[in-house]
Amino acid sequence: MLTSVLGAPGAGKSAVAGPLRDTLPTHVVLDWDAFMTPASTLAGREVKRSPTTWPAYRRLVRAAVDAVVPAPLVLLGVGTPDELADWPIDAWILLDCEDGQRRRRLASRLQACELEDAVSDAARYRALGLPVVDSTGRTPEAVAVELARH
Length: 150
Prior knowledge:
Strand content: 15-25%
Low-confidence stretches: none
Mean pLDDT: 93
Distance between the termini: 12 Å
Largest sheet: 5 strands, parallel
Order of helices and strands: EHEHHEEHHEH
Shape: globular
Radius of gyration: 15 Å
Strand order of the largest sheet: 2-3-1-4-5
């Protein structure tokens, strides 16, 4: 069983990864961002800010997924159902938060244009009509418990 938890930057995906592992001890929890630093080192540039590296990075994450499946897996990431159409995903959940909270969470990490891109991504993801878990004003532990119920 592969569940994809989609979320725009600032939704809380990385923050919930550890608590989700504690909540679902029989599952592998894989944060899409887990390989960012070593992949950036290999690529010789920052993957997050280099769109030309994204297809190769997606293949890297897919290789990790394929190595884990058929074990129960929760993938925390940014790939949409259209972008990951050929992946063996059984269920989708949108992890979201109020845009003001997203801006506060990301203000120290992103430039203004990147912050607005994150807000735009969130709006695009909301339009997909996926089941939603809202992380606004909630602890990662509380969010993990709700995600585990889906």
